[in-house]
Automatic annotation (TrEMBL):
SUPFAM superfamilies on file: PLP-dependent transferases
Family recorded in the similarity comment: Belongs to the alliinase family.
Keyword Transferase found: yes
Keyword line: Aminotransferase, Pyridoxal phosphate, Transferase
Name this protein carries in UniProt: Alliinase C-terminal domain-containing protein
Tree of life domain: Eukaryota
Alphabetical list of Pfam families matching this protein: Alliinase_C
InterPro entries, per database record: Alliinase_C, Alliinase_N_sf, Ethylene_sulfur-biosynth, PyrdxlP-dep_Trfase, PyrdxlP-dep_Trfase_major, PyrdxlP-dep_Trfase_small
GO molecular function: transaminase activity
Alliinase C-terminal domain span: 32-390
Subunit structure: Homodimer.
Amino acid sequence: RLMLFHQTQPFAVTNSNTRLLISSSPPSNRVINLDHGDPRVYERFWRQTGDKSTIVIPGWQFMSYFSDGSNICWFLEAEFAREVVRLHKVVGNAVTEGRHIVVGTGSSQLFLAALYALSPNDAPQPISVVCASPYYSSYPSMTDHLKSGLYKWAGDAESFDKEGPYIELVTSPNNPDGHVRRSKVNKSQGFLVHDLAYYWPQYTPISAPADHDLTLFTVSKSTGHAGMRIGWALVKDEEVAKKMTKFIELNTIGVSKDSQVRAAKVLRAVSDSREQGNSKDSESFFKFSHKLMASRWKQLRLVVDRSGLFSLPKFSPAFCTFFNQVLEPQPAFVWLKCEGNVVDCESFLRGHNILTRSGIHFGVSPKYVRISMLDTDDNFNQFLDRLSAIQSR
Ligand code: PMP
């Protein structure tokens, strides 16, 4: 997979079929890698923000390991915590009152911290970790990578029927298929982890502030700053927050202050851009990103509808409290199904130099693939051209 990742740079391949298939744009058969959800789509917005999203850190600053010794999460920068609370209030997507904030090196680190914190430490067997399929492809590998004695991947939540404690991951809207989700198992001894990486107005109508025991968010998908490696957890239970903090202490002795302060500045710019409206020098981030996703989805639907070769999930419009209107979901990924007799959709698209991720990594059939909608304009446009060309053959 790493090798594929490095192929995002344009490079020549000698596949004469692909060249023949492209009719409306200049011939290009470079590989388009839409396997990862790399959020390059927002770069254009951040370029125009200038000083509003820029920080300068003098050499003497942030040298200590510690941020606030009186906080459970002793490495949490107060400035970052303040902006997290403010942004959730501005967007209306999560309750922060009565919650401890734990910062992590991406929500990936917080996911592992949550598994550690929720696992009973004296159980004879590892606790089962489940998620309804199709599930985010990293959950099984992250859960089992170190063969922990505390927790173990147990697959699809729909078919989980073991007695005793378990951890259920609820991703809403879901990666890969974009649907809004609730927990599926519904037994008494379950711990829920809500992964709300995509519960932001550009992807899905905001219905109500999320009010769960343990919720994960990340800047990677909200503002698009995946490289900053900052995520946060909202945690109700003090003991769970303490154990998550302990995990991060043992893992990386805290989280980069430079990144937290940069994240604070970026979140502040997002909240300010909402509150200042759409003036000439301050465009609202969510208006920008919503419009962009809407335009991409509109173009994609046109191409897919014309094809007869592929199909897309169906979504119901819903009222969005942030935009104050009924809106359609417009997920960060396309969950595309190859119709007809194509069995392996990933291979089929790879034959057209489009790299995607097969349904098998998400616990379902290879007739499905996940395709990133967050790549650069150039890659997205090339992808659309390539897809239209396949059907016009
Ligand atoms: N959860 C989900 C559902 C995701 O899609 C991703 C990113 N692909 C993550 C967590 C990890 O995000 P981060 O960059 O914050 O580690």
